[in-house]
Amino acid sequence: MITVHSILEQHANVPIFEKEMLLAFSTRHSREFIMSHPNEEILKRQARAYARLLKKREAGWSVAHILGKKEFFELNFFVNKHTLIPRPETELLVWLALKRLESTDGRRLTTVIDVGTGSGCISIAIARSMRKSGIYEHIDFFGIDTSRPALRVAKKNAALHDTHITFLHGNLLEPITNKQAATGNENLLITANLPYLTQEQFDEEPSIHREPLSALVAKEGGLFFYKRLLKQLRQIMVDRTPSTVTLFMEIDPSQSRMLSHISTSIFPNAAVATHKDLAGHDRVVEILIDATPTKVLSLAE
User: Fold this and answer.
1) 182 and 50, same structural domain?
2) Which domain holds residue 139?
3) Which of 198, 256, 191 is nearest to 224 (CA)?
4) Tens digits of per-residue pLDDT, 95-120?
5) Neighbours of 294 (CB within 10 A)
6) Is 245:289 a contact under the CB 8 Å cutoff?
7) Which ranges carry the Release factor glutamine methyltransferase N-terminal domain (predicted)?
8) CA 188 to CA 301: how far, in whole Å?
9) Is the pLDDT of residue 230 over 50?
């Protein structure tokens, strides 16, 4: 007889928690059930289904891709081959955005834009968390991506979590500059988890080779898209005149100094700060821009 215990003892090269998740999916039980019932019988058809999933895992597919879902910010999200798998370190973007929104003047319209939205997890997590706040009704949420298949996943996730987010197809902030979304005389908050790995970094990390290359790798030391984003934002400041702009950009730790330097060269009067992740690595560069020339900026606000 095949039991939970006996089947999990096999394939020692796969982490036990991953095998538990795959077996739970194959048997339509929860992982908690699998962990607490080692003597539960596994039917032959369930064992075959589990073997197929395990084969995909050993071929380099992540558990999230195999199961088609991933938890982020305590919410479950649909993912597939067209989307980046949400990482725990990206939750820092959400926390920082929420902190900034909580300090926002609730009487003024706020536009939140997630650039390179992918599965939509960042904007959806922010929207869900802001629901009970007094300024939620004054916030417009947008998600932008160049991938139409990824946007379909994002819309599915937004429906799953009952969040109203307008998803736009386009390159970085182009849908905004093209007036598909209104900005002007409001607070503008932008989150961006754009491709920031170099080709060398991608090649050295086999675990991400099944994810879309276009969502991971960028030229110019991984900063190509962030440079374009900053230049587009500068044009928005000229054309649309938002009251304040806060931009959060996720980075590789090695890029913090260079991106901070680029940011201040494009926005000399901006306040720039770097935030560390839980591992103590530089992970997010924040830029605060105020359209009021006489106002003294402080990221402590």
Assistant:
1) no
2) 69-290
3) 198
4) 999 999 988 766 678 899 999 999 99
5) 5
6) yes
7) 8-68
8) 15
9) yes
Q: What is the pLDDT of residues 170-213, one digit of tens each?
A: 999 999 876 555 555 578 999 999 999 999 999 999 888 888 99
With a CB cutoff of 8 Å and minimum separation 6, the contacts of 78 are: 68, 69, 119, 153, 156, 157, 160
Cβ distance 72 to 92 under 8 Å?
no
The encoded tokens of residue 223 equal 């900063």
On whether residue 300 sits in a domain, the answer given is: no
Same domain, yes or no, for 40 and 73? no
Per the structure block, which two tokens stand in for 19? Answer: 């095998």
Q: Which of 241, 249, 201, 244 is nearest to 225 (CA)?
A: 249
Q: Provide Rg for the chain, Cα atoms.
A: 21
Type of residue found at 209: H
Residue 54 to residues 40, 84, 142, 164, 176, Cα–Cα distance (Å): 19, 21, 37, 37, 44
Whose CA is closest to 146, among 164, 171, 182, 178? 171
Same domain, 105 and 230: yes
Q: For residues 164 and 143, give the distance between their C-alpha atoms in angstroms, rounded to a whole number.
A: 11
**HEC secondary structure over the chain:** CCEHHHHHCCCCCCCHHHHHHHHHHHHCCCHHHHHHCCCCECCHHHHHHHHHHHHHHHCCCCHHHHHCEEEECCEEEECCCCCCCCCHHHHHHHHHHHHHHHCCCCCCCEEEEEECCCCCHHHHHHHHHHCCCCCHHHEEEEEEECCHHHHHHHHHHHHHCCCCCEEEECCCCHHHHCCCCCCCCCEEEEEECCCCECHHHHHCCHHHCCCCHHHCECCCCCCHHHHHHHHHHHHHHHHCCCCEEEEEEECCHHHHHHHHHHHHHHCCCCEEEEEECCCCCEEEEEEEEECCCCCCCCCCC
Confidence tier at 301 by pLDDT (50, 70, 90): very low
Single pTM value for the model:
0.89
